[in-house]
Structures are given as C-alpha cells and as structure tokens.
Amino acid sequence: MRCGYFKVSILAFAAASTLLYLSSIKNEVHTHSKRLETAHNNDSIRGQGMLRRLDKMEKDINRLLSVMGKVEMKVPAGQKEAEVKKERKVVRKLFPNSYLFSKWGQDLSEEEQREAEMLYKRYGYNAFLSDRLPLNREIPDTRPHRCAEKKYPADLPTVSVILIYLDEALSIIKRAIRSIIDKTPAHLLKEIILVDDSSSNEDLKEKLDDYVTLINEECPGLVKKIRHSEQLGLTQARLSGWKSAVGDVVAIFDAHIEVHVEWAEPLLARIKEDRTVILTPVFDRVNYDDLTLTPYSAAADAFDWALWCMYESFRPEWYKLKDDSLPGKSPSIMGILVADRKFFGEIGSLDGGMKIYGGENVELGIRVWLCGGSVEVIPCSKIAHIERSSKPYLPDLSVTMKRNALRVAEVWMDEYKYNVNIAWNLPLENHGIDIGDVSERKKLRKSLNCKPFQWYLDNVYPLLDPLSDLLGYGALRNDLKPELCIDQGPVPGNIPIIYPCHFYSPQNCYYRTDGQIYIGGIKSHKYNSNRCLVDSGSGLYPGLYECKLAEQKKFHMLWDFKQDEPIQNRDTKRCLEIAMDENNNYKLIVQQCSGQKWKIQNLIEGRLLGPKKTI
Length: 615
Fold this sequence. Notes:
alpha+beta; 615 residues; 34% helix
C-alpha cells in the first residue's frame, strides 16, 4: 500500500509540475504576442509571422492544459500543499554587505546571486535585472502637470540622438534605443548614433550589430555605429557623434537612459525659438539596484570650485512665475545636452583636450554664457538616467577631474582660476599637473569676443563665493610634531584634534583676512556656512562650530597668525598648541602661549609671511 501511495504521489507531482510549466509557457506566449502587437513598426514584418506561429502554439497549449487539468483534479489538495511546502528552501545570502542586495534579490538562488553580483561589479548597476526586463518597459510620466497640455509647432527641427558608451550592458543600450524610437515622432528623429569608446564587452559587437541590423531593416540608416579603436574619453566620444550627425539638432546622451513621453518636442521648440540656447532635460534617477525610478524636480545645474556638479535652486525670478513647466536659466549643464548642431560648432563644441571624465560640462556652460549664448533646463523634457554606484571604467574620478578642472580654470576663469587650486588643495604655482596645450582654446575665446569671468560671477552665478580674502590654505602643522596635522575630528562632533597627516579634506584648513580659521574644507557658495575654530574662553580644548552659529553665540572665533609663528586668539589671548596626555598621545589644546609655532601648507601672495621670513 505504501508503494502504491508513493506512485500516486509521483504521478500527482508530475501532473502538477507539467500543468504549472505549461501554464507558464502559455502566459509567456500570450504576453509576448501582446508585446509584438504593440511593438514599433520597426519590427512589424518579422513580428507578423511570429504572431501567427505564437497563436497556433497558444491554441495547442490550451488543449494540453485542458487535459492536464483533469489529471490535477484527481490529486488531493492537502497532498499538493504538502509537496509545495516540501519544495521551499531557505536560500543563503552570499553577499550580505553588497549594496545590490540591500533591498532587492531576496528570492534569488545562490547561482543567481553570484551572477547578479558579478554583473553589478562589472557595470555599477543591476544588469542581471535589466536583462530580464522588457526593452519597452513602461516608466511613469513625471513631468509637471502643465506639460501634457502644451502644444508644439508642426515644423520642428529634426534631431540626431547620440548615445555614448564604454562597456555598458547590452540590454541597457537596447532599451535606450527602443525608448528613443518609441517615444520620438518618426518625422523628427533623423538618426540614432551609437559611439563606442573602445568597449571590451563582446556583447557590444556582434549581438549589438544584430540588433542594429534588425532596426535598420525597417528604417534604413536610422541607427549608425561609431567605434573608437582606443579609449578617448567622454568628450571625444561626444565630439565623434556630433561630427557624424546630420540632424538640425544634436541630443548627446549617456547610453544608460530611457526617454520619457514627449521628451523631444519641448527641446526642439525652444531651439526653434532661439538657436543660441544650450538645453538640458531634467533627469529622473533610475536606482542602480532595482532599476525603479525616483522622480527629480527641475533644478539648475551648478558646480563648486573643484568643478564637481551639483543641483541648485533656480534664480528667484523663476519661482515668482509660479509655473514649474517653464524653462529655467542654469549656470551649467549636468552632462546631457541638446543644441543646434551648427551653433554648437560655432561656439567651439567641446574642449577636445579634456581627458576621460569630468569638467567638460562646466567648461561648456561657462563658455556658452561668456561667448553669446545661454543655458536652460527644460522641465517638460525628462530623461530617466541610471545612477551608477560607481564608474567601473574609472574607479578614482578625482585624477582626471582635477586635471580637467585646472584646464578649464586656465582658459576661462581669469584671476579666479586660483580658486580651483584652492578647492583641490594644490599650490597656486608649480602644481605639477600637465593640463595639456590650451593655446587653441584661448584663441577661440579671443575670436568669439567672450566676456570676462567677472561678468559670469556678477550676472550668471553670483552665488559662488569668490574666496577673495584667503591668506593661506591646506594642512596646519606644529613645529614640535610636523608629522601631525590639525583635523576636524569625528563628525558629528565639535572638537578638532591633532592627527597623523594624510592631507585629505578633514585636514584642510583656511585662514581668512578677518582672522577666521576654517577646518575640514571650505564651501564654494555664499549660502553655505563653514566650520570655524573657536576658543570658548575656558576649558582646555578648542571648538569647531558653524561660523554663523559661532557668531550668534559670540564665541571667540578670530585668530592672529603668520607663517612659522603662534596661532593666538584675539580675544582670549590664548594660543592653539599641542600637548601630550597621560597616555602619551598628543592633544590639540588652547592655553597660555608657550611659543609653539605653526606652518600652513600653502600661502597666497606671501601675505602670511612674518618679518624677514621666506616661503
């Protein structure tokens, strides 16, 4: 009897499994046929033949399901539930510390976890999930509500969309292409140009070529492909695409994007009104782990003195209009740009002397404003952009970013160029970084009759702090222990410390003409507050507080200092010094002056030199 029961169980399990398998196939067939029905006409010829075959397959599966359903009915319900429970297993989490799995992937098998983590490390986003999502997936419409009501001229200029990439996942690029084709009116989309900056990923060769061929069978010449023989960087990739474009307008994007509905029309309409404006859509963030979308509101594309990008509020006059669908003026762009193709060339396109990554977008923004154009953000044009957890092709972005920033400063920033050195904690002269030949860019500036950078600060970006009253910056070291530097200490916290020198941001100090000493970096914008060194007037240890707060509380925050001399508080007359504690560790203290001397890493114009001192 036990043997007979075992046979029945096996048969029941087999029947249930077969039924489940056939049902899944039916669902996949039905879903795929529906996708084919709604697919873009680029796939229509092949799709129609496939639809007929899928219809026949679905009918055959329906007949099989009908038969298998009768078999399943004979299996007791309790027995089926027991078998399902027996199948469930607890899967070990192989990568508990991986950011990829913090909120995604709970149901993956160990093998799937390994594959997902491997792809995540390769691309900086969830390529495992991307490979399993539809190429034409729906993303929510996150535009301001007034955008859907807008009407655009029928005779808009055409657009060439340029997608630049280096070792992206194949499914990401295909999805970008698919979204552009599906959501751009055919009469406006002149071409899609793929620019491969010498990828090593084999998927981006034959497999991508096959996909391009499939699209071009329906729309000859729609998708073009350019491949660099060596890695030249983002700027050169953008230039290669622009030089090959023939549309009236160029839209230069990263390849890890999806466009929203009506993304192109507001951009093209604005350029039709004014060909001298450089535009940028509004990004929505596609999260790198689960590829869901986080909407972003429109904001200006700004930067600090190191030329790192950031978002910032529009100028007050934009908010007074009380219409969040209107274009907003912006000091710079964030990297994705749309421009009249010919004007882009007239204004100098991009600086081909930039290396790999960083600064080229800020350079363009400054140049356009100084040389006769303007920059705007268009809220009714939205792009969903994957925010990588890291850039695998360049683990340390600061190397090329620093070099490119110095190049921008040398050409465009006049007397304010040294603020870039200060932001990167580099000496004002002889910093040892080769920025390349800038003579042609300086000739371009002269030929375009561009305004001085002071005009940019006064009229375009008055929120930048000119840093005009600095005397010295960098690490502060005591002559008793020159291997130790003043450090901001634990954050959050308000007690600076003395710590072995590493010369990174927590140890960057700044001395201003009014006597304030900042520790832990300096802010680039007037609306931010730095952290000031203070003497409370009692107690052994100095404090470190937001300067505005320190001023409100009337802390003693002004100090006298010259190179290789004591640092003395103007009010309390106590000095900043170091002393050894009971554990033989050095502490930063304030006490009666004993003659200890300090040296700051970089001086500005020698104004910190005492009598008969030399740098």
